[in-house]
Amino acid sequence: MLDYYRDLATDYHWIFPDEIVTFPGVIGGTSVENVELIQEAVRALPPGAAVLDCACGIGTDAMALAHAGFQVTATDGSPSMAAEARRRLPADVQVLVARWEELPVAGPYELVLCLGNSLVHAGSHEAMVAALSGMRRVLSPTGTLIVDSRNWELLYRERHRIVTSERLRERDGMRSCWVYVWSIPERFGEPCLAEIVLLLVRPDGGFTHRRYPIEFQPFTPAQLKDRLTEAGFEITGSSYHADRQRYAFTCRPTGPG
């Protein structure tokens, strides 16, 4: 799996509003359309429960969970993203570089999160089932897995080629906005490419931009459900709607691990 986030990691915070990246953060903030479903599952956890964020990115959800008193482990497949998370997170949050199918943690965790539209990088059907099986391996028999995804069918249906941020963000004297430039194949299921173009205005008024290409392997909600079932999960909650940009599933393991 290519590390599309190697160079993007230090700029990734620009994608999120201040309340997501600034302490104490927002639980589920990387999946803002699904915050209600995510926070409902978190509220059901016992105080201080062990939680794994296995697609931690720069650590925004892990930060909010740690602030809420949970025992948090954060992993990411990108060494650069994990390094940025380590820089941002409190010292008592363990941060590791790990692929989903090879999670170097024993668990068991009462909650495993895989948010931020991360599963799209798993690749093939078989690779995603292996990834989900890795998450199940470290989940408590009574635990909950939460996964989210972009609604790829909606993206292919609407076929918006250019998507821009709603407003400028300002941090450390810099101002920024971003543009997604999509290359969407005619046939669903073929990989699609997004080039994230970050536009930056420096304090002296100078202007620069940076480009980050990322490839995605789309899948339907039905395909995700099938893969979750194959990995040993049953779905207990869903925020899916055909006209929503993103959705999330809550799941629990079935049978012995």
Task: Give structural notes.
This protein has two domains: 9-151 and 220-253, Vaccinia Virus protein VP39 (Rossmann fold, 3-Layer(aba) Sandwich); 153-216, S-adenosyl-L-methionine-dependent methyltransferases. Helix content is 24%, strand content 32%. The protein is built from seven helices and twelve strands. The protein has a seven-stranded mixed β-sheet with strand order 3-2-1-4-5-12-11, sandwiched between helices. Strands 6, 7, 8, 9 and 10 form a five-stranded antiparallel β-sheet that branches. The two termini are 26 Å apart. Strand 2 (71-76), helix 4 (79-88) and strand 3 (94-97) form a beta-alpha-beta unit. The relative contact order is 0.16. The protein is globular and about 60 Å long. Helix 5 crosses helix 7. The chain has 257 residues and is an alpha/beta fold.
Concise structural overview:
The chain is α/β, with parallel strands linked by helices. Helices cover 24% and strands 32% of the residues. The protein has two domains: 9-151 and 220-253, Vaccinia Virus protein VP39 (Rossmann fold, 3-Layer(aba) Sandwich), CATH 3.40.50; 153-216, Single Sheet (S-adenosyl-L-methionine-dependent methyltransferases).
